[in-house]
Amino acid sequence: IEEVPILIMHGERLGYFNREIKMQQLLQEYQCRLFISGHTHIPMLVQEGAYVYFNPGSTSLPRGGSLPSYGVIEIDGASIHAEIKNYQR
């Protein structure tokens, strides 16, 4: 989208530990900057250098003590702005 190559996957192959390391390897392999995943139902937003790792969590089945949440990502040229928002039922 725009100037940001994106990798999107459910995330079941990443496991639960060291996910960011595996995500970084995949971003480098596919030459992407933004990794969007799910699977854990736990929100995550990490920016390391040029890379952004994003999991919006879950609106209906949050896990790990997290609140119900969803994500918003805005891309403008090469700029990425991502945020996780709490969802109120």
Task: Describe this structure in a few short sentences.
This protein is mainly beta and 89 residues long. It has one helix at 19-30, and strands at residues 6-8, 34-36, 44-48, 51-55, 69-76, 79-86.
Could you characterize what this model shows?
Helices cover 13% and strands 36% of the residues. With 89 residues, it is mainly beta. The strands form two sheets. It has a four-stranded mixed beta sheet, with helices on one face. Strands 5-6 form a two-stranded antiparallel ribbon.
Please specify the SSE layout and strand pairing.
Layout: E1 6-8, H1 19-30, E2 34-36, E3 44-48, E4 51-55, E5 69-76, E6 79-86
How are the strands ordered across the major sheet? 1-2-4-3
- Unreliable residue runs: none
Computed structural class? mainly beta
Sketch the topology as an H/E string, one letter per element: EHEEEEE
- Count, helices: 1
User: Percent of residues in beta strands?
Assistant: 35-45%
Number of beta strands: 6
Share in helix: 10-25%
Q: What value does the Rg take, in angstroms? A: 13 Å
Give the biggest sheet: 4 strands, mixed
Average the pLDDT over all residues and give the rounded result.
Answer: 93
How far apart are the first and last residues' alpha carbons, in Å?
31 Å
What overall form do the CA principal axes indicate?
A: globular
